[in-house]
Fold this sequence. Notes:
The protein has 91 residues and is mostly helical.
Amino acid sequence: xxxxxxxxxxxxxxxxxxxxxxxxxxxxxxxxxxxxxxxxxxxxxxxxxxxxxxxxxxxxxxxxxxxxxxxxxxxxxxxxxxxxxxxxxxx
Length: 91
């Protein structure tokens, strides 16, 4: 699991794919396939950190929400930095 988390920092969609194939964490964390798939497409870091922080009895709590927030910030920064790179190339 730690190896998947470290891999997720570089390539979150691949780490989510491995987590889906090798473990049942995504099935436990998300009630429906659609919600996990939308997270895979739109917010991969957030989805990965949510699945890692989720526990069956308590859900996500405490430090887990900090990890999910960090994942969301990583997703936002990846979208905004790609926009800045596109503007830099046009100029």
